[in-house]
Each structure stands twice: as C-alpha cells, then as structure tokens.
Design brief:
heterodimer; A: 349 residues; mainly beta; Immunoglobulin-like; 4-stranded antiparallel sheet; B: 364 residues; 26 strands
C-alpha cells in the first residue's frame, strides 16, 4: 500500500503473482481504488465469503473505483480483488476500525412499576438505555415462578417485536390465550399468572443491543399476582387537584388504580377556557396512579378540562370504553361509544 | 407471501377486474425514491406491483417492479444458505441480516424478500430478488414508480408529545382492488384490519375495523390477526385469519368497512402453545386448502370445503377442533411460504443448524 488509507486499515495487500499489474488497492472514505490504470475489474468480499458485495465500478481519471452499495461495517474485514484483463489477480484485505464502545446498554425501567399485578395483567413495557437489536426478545425474557420453574411461553410472540421508533422500548404482551378467565384456566397449558403466586420477570444479560454488544447486566423484577381486574377505568372516580391561577403548578389527577404508563403520556390532555389544548410537561408517579400536568405558561383563571381518550387502559387491558373481553353470556359491562371523556375543573385566583 | 386468491372462475373475473385497476395504479404512481423505513410484510398485486408494509414508517408502499413477464410454471427456486449469501452481498454478517418476509411474483416466479440490514432502529431496509438461476439482486429504490398509503397513528389529546406509539403491520394482502392490512399497536391492545382501496387515492388509509371472535367458550376477544389469506368460494370472498394460539377465523371481505365491528366465525382451533407464521390458499383435485406455517406445530394443510357454511366453534375446547387438517411431517422449520405456481410453493426454512434455505416444494 503506497498511501495510508483515510478509512480502514490495510491488513495485507500486495501483488499476488504480479503478472504485470503495477498498481495497488486502497480504501479511501469508503471507496476501493485500484491505481495504475490497468484494465480489469475490482470485486470486494466480506473476508471468508465467496459471493461479492453489491456495489458499482467506475473509472476516475484512470483509477478503477468500486463503491460498495452499503456502508462498510466497522470491525469487519473485507477482501478486495483486482482481476486484470490478463494475468493473475491482486488482492488486499482491509479492516475498518470499530469505534470505541460507549457505556453498556441496560434495562432502565419496567412498567408497570407496581409489584402486585392482577393475574390478568396484559403487558410490560421494558425501557433500555440505548437502542436494542430486534429478533432476540422472546428468547431473552423469562417469567419464573417463585419455586424456580419457568413459565412456558407466557408472552405473545410476534416476529416483528413491538419496539417504539427509537428501539429503546419493548412492549411485551402476555399471550391473551394464557390469561386466566372466570374460575378455571381455559387452556390445558394453564394461565401464565395465578393469583397468590409470586413471579420474577428476568432479562438475560446476553441480549444484544443495536451495536451488537450484550447488556451491561441482567434485570429482574419480582411481583405477586393478585385477583383479576375486570373493571373498566372509571374517570368518575378520579380525583383532580386543580392548580392556582397565575402559577405553573401541576394539575394532579389521582386514579383509582394504576393505569397504562405509555398511554398516560399520549391520551390524556388538558384544554383551557376556550377548549384549546394546553402545551406542557407530563409527570407520572405513585406507581402510575398519579398523573400531573405542568403547563408551559401560567394557568389562566377559569374553567378547564382534563380530556381522556377512551382507549386508555388499565394494567389488564380494560379501557374506559370497554372491558378487555366481553362476556357474551352476561354482557353487563358498560360500553362507552364516545371517543373522549372530559372532566372539568376550575382554576381559581 | 400473500397472493392468496383462489377459486377458478370467480378468481378469473376478479383478476380481469383487477388488471384494469393495476393499470390505473401504475399510471398514478410517481417515480422517485420511496421513504421506506422498514421493509416488512410483502404481497403482490397484479402486474408486478409489490406491496410492502412499513411498520416503522406506518405506511404501505406499492412499488412498480416492472417485473411482469416470465414462466412461473417453469421456475424452481432453491438457494441453500440464503442468509449467508445475502449477508455477503450486503457486506455484513448473517447475524446482522433479518429476512422479514417472502413473496413470489406470480407474473415471473421470482421471489422477493424484505430484508433489514442491521437489527436496530437504524437498520437499512432492502428488497432483494431471487431468480430461478439462484441470482440475487437488489430491487433498487432510488428511482422507482411507487405510491404510498399512510396508516393513521392515533391523534392524542396531549398533542402527541412523547408519542412512542407505533403500529406494527403483521400482514398485507391484495384482493379485488383493495389492499388489506393487519395491524397491531404497541400500546393499546386491539385487532385492527384495514381495507384500503387500490390504487391508493388518498394518503390517509382511514380507520380500521375491529374484529372479535368468540373462541374459548363465552368470551369475545380482540386478539391481533397474525396472518391471513383471502379465500373465494361461491360469490363472496372470505378473509381467513389466523390468530396467535391458533384459532382460524372467517368473515366476509365485504364487511371490511371503516369503523365496522366484525364478529368473526371461528372455523378451526389448531392447538395451543403455537404461533401461526404464514398462510396461503390453493386448489388441488378440485378442492380448496389452506397451508399454514406455525412456529411449533409445523405446517398444516387445512381443508376449506364448506368453510363458509361452518357454524363456528362456540364451545370451549381443550385443544383442536373444526375444519379437518393434517400436519405435513416432512416440512420442518418453515418460517415463510408463498405460492409459486399451481403445483408448487416456495418456503424459507430455518434449519436446526441455524441456516436459512430457500426451497421449492410441491404443494402437499
């Protein structure tokens, strides 16, 4: 190699068999260049592979240039082969340096945060400190009974895996076919969770993040299964603690039970005296029983309202609009057809 | 995967109608680079139009592949070690390649694969074409005729701040001038099926349809549809939908109207602890069958005779019931399948050693 490549380290390059070839292969800024002007073709392989990588060949001022279709992968070794029109090929091997690793990725939070869950619990949200790799989730998450026995296939396994757009939050649904109903489990496999038993949600440390590294540590969340919850969230039972006008205090809303953390960020809002939506910041705490809204601008005096989309669910998937499941024999649950419910409150001086 | 049309004379009428629609579709497309963020479920519409579900972008793309001729009856697709070959071509390792779906172009017999190069949110979507010769090439998305339908992501009273909601697309299909899309939110639990008129007329795909089925005794559930096929018998097209923990549910395609709530009929219970992966329908000896690949119960051949008249399963059952089926013992590790021609299917098989093979099999 004549010049030092700007991107990539040439591990070994040289004339293999010579045969009149007078140039050298270089890797510069993601492009492979064969100098010397000799006619021939340039192909690039992942080292050890027999099929060439996709890319295009062109001539630039007599230099043969191969542009890979996709960016080269740091840490991977590539082999470039120049085959002259006559004579033996010339070969070079290149390694792109991998960037220095950042701090290892970890599980930062799991929702619901409460440690007593209804036995018909519907889902978990797992939050990670950095983007994760798809394709491993259901092998790396385990539900273990207190006696150490692993619950078999407790979760709804979807090939797509339900990640948020940033790849840092996984939605993990319990398999609805394994959620206990009525007095008896409905499947021979039995329900995933049973009232009175204790469980641990375990995340393996060898789960890979998007950069290909494993987690910095595993994760465990222990909880106990309690009685099933078939009641719909009831806004009439929520308590509102209105703020004072002229301040940017939080409006606090206390729920009758923990609600879905993700949806609380999305489907609850506040409208001002003119029904215009207010912008502000949301805080959720007390194990998802309290929702607070801090406006960007001080509160005006007057009539406001909390607006909730009726899709809002509790931990068992019962929404304001309908219970998780409809009992066709005893359809006594209320069904709400409106899209939103409004809870008015007064902001006073 | 899902070019799932059947039913001889009826299908012929449907296809002639659809061809007019397809001509209109290609002429209505714009040329350019579709902003595909993730290449997910695939299906073919007539005239080589490839439908690509993009769960990350919340959209369905229709791509004019211009791959409209060939001899699909003569094609045989067999590529052992497909994942290794794809990784080599994409300049990466097999661990960094995800094959998301497979669809065979009925016009040419070429297999199309939706790929992620990389496994994180920044992975590059790629569509590859595999020919009978074994040649693998990329369907270039730099300058291609395309159209797009955006799936609505629910508006929020809180103005969508911190909105991490996404709607995964579990399956797409084409039927009679409509693109059918099965979706699943990563927040609220719902089964959402949309029927979008094709060619796409508006950018917004409108509201979906909630589907309930009364399996497992007395409770109606709204579990998400995992995979589905369109099945024609008699005058009416039926949607045959497979759910997780495998009930097979049927409802008329005509009921897929925005805002509708559909009560599906459970026509088979195929066993628990199982996840359906992919399904096609076909005809053999004058009778109709569905071929369903599952993650733990293998590939099932399900008789569809009289399925539209089946009263439905309403009793609680412990394991299996409904339409008769047989498990094809010779097919193991099938993760995707599609019909190649009237006698053959193409399958993607994950071997016990972990390799991914593309194989042509006679329809069982």
């Amino acid at each position: 190699m004549g010049r030092r490549p700007t991107l990539g380290i040439a591990l070994a390059a040289g004339l293999l068999g010579c045969g009149g070839a007078s140039g050298a292969i270089r890797l510069e800024e993601g492009l492979f260049r064969m100098t010397g002007g000799e006619p021939g073709s340039l192909a690039v392989f992942v080292d050890g592979a027999s099929d060439p990588i996709f890319g295009t060949e062109r001539r630039e001022n007599g230099t043969l240039v191969f542009e890979p279709r996709f960016p080269l992968r740091p840490g991977l070794k590539y082999r470039a082969v120049f085959t002259p029109s006559g004579g033996p090929p010339l070969e070079g091997t290149f390694l792109l340096p991998a960037p220095p690793p950042g701090p290892p990725t970890t599980v930062v939070r799991v929702f619901p945060s409460v440690n007593v869950l209804p036995e018909n619990q519907l889902k978990f949200y797992l939050h990670f400190s950095a983007p994760m790799a798809r394709g491993e989730a259901y092998r790396k998450i385990h539900l273990v009974e207190s006696a150490g026995r692993e619950v078999e296939l407790p979760f709804l396994e979807l090939g797509e895996e339900l990640w948020d757009p940033s790849g840092t939050r996984l939605t993990l649904f319990f398999d609805p076919g394994r959620i206990k109903r009525g007095l008896k489990p409905r499947e021979e496999a039995g329900p995933s969770l049973e009232e009175g038993k204790s469980y641990t949600l375990e995340v393996d440390r060898d789960w890979h993040d998007a950069s290909g590294r494993t987690l910095g540590e595993g994760f465990r969340k222990s909880f106990r299964a309690a009685a099933p919850d078939d009641a719909q969230p009831d806004p009439a039972r929520w308590t509102l603690e209105p703020p004072r006008a002229g301040t940017r205090e939080g409006l606090a809303v206390l729920f009758e039970k923990p609600l879905d953390e993700a949806m609380l960020h999305r489907v609850l809002g506040v409208v001002g005296p003119g029904r215009a939506p207010l912008s502000g910041r949301i805080e959720i705490d007390r194990e998802e029983r309290r929702w607070r809204f801090f406006p960007d601008r001080p509160w005006e005096a007057g009539r406001h309202a909390l607006v909730a989309d009726t899709v809002l669910e509790d931990l068992a998937g019962n929404s304001i609009a309908r219970p998780f499941e409809i009992d066709v024999v005893r359809p006594i649950e209320k069904r709400i057809d409106s899209k939103t419910v409004s809870l008015p409150f007064e902001v006073r001086e | 995967m899902i070019r799932k049309m059947l039913g001889c004379a009826v299908a012929a009428i449907a296809i002639s109608g659809s061809m007019a629609a397809a001509q209109e579709a290609t002429s209505g497309m714009t040329k350019g680079a579709p902003d595909l963020k993730f290449a997910g479920p695939l299906a073919f519409a007539p005239q080589g139009i490839l439908l690509v579900g993009d769960p990350q972008g919340g959209a369905v793309f229709a791509l004019g592949t211009a791959d409209t001729t060939g001899q699909p009856d003569q094609v045989k697709l067999d590529v052992p070690g497909l994942d290794q070959k794809i990784a080599s071509a994409l300049g990466t390792t097999p661990a960094e390649v995800m094959v998301n779906d497979l669809a065979v172009n009925p016009a040419s017999g070429k297999a199309y694969l939706s790929i992620s190069r990389g496994r994180g949110p920044a992975a590059t979507p790629v569509i590859l074409v595999v020919e009978g010769s074994g040649k693998i090439s990329e369907l270039s998305l730099k300058e291609i005729a395309f159209s797009k339908a955006v799936l609505p992501n629910l508006p929020a009273p809180g103005e969508g701040k911190n909105n991490q909601r996404g709607e995964s697309i579990t399956d797409v299909a084409y039927a009679d001038g409509h693109v059918i899309v099965a979706g699943l939110s990563n927040e609220e639990f719902s089964s959402n099926l949309r029927s979008i008129p094709f060619p796409f007329k508006t950018a917004e795909a409108g509201t979906g349809v909630e589907i309930y089925h009364g399996s497992h005794g007395r409770f109606e559930t709204k579990s998400p549809v995992r995979t589905f096929a369109i099945y024609k018998s008699g005058a009416e097209a039926q949607v045959l939908a497979a759910y997780t923990c495998t009930p097979l549910v049927r409802f008329p395609l005509s009921e897929l109207k925005p805002g509708n709530k559909i009560k599906g009929t459970t026509v088979a219970e195929l066993g628990n602890r199982n996840r359906p992966l992919d399904m096609i329908v076909y005809q053999q000896g004058g009778k109709d069958y569905a071929l369903l690949a599952n993650n733990s119960r293998g590939v099932m051949k399900i008789a569809l005779e009289n399925v539209e008249k089946a009263p439905g399963i309403t009793e609680k059952i412990s394991d299996k019931a409904g339409q008769p089926y047989e498990t094809i013992a010779s097919l193991k590790g099938v993760v995707h399948l599609d019909r190649l021609n009237k006698d053959h299917a193409v399958v993607l098989i994950r071997t016990e050693a972990g390799a991914l093979n593309l194989e042509t099999i006679p329809l069982p």
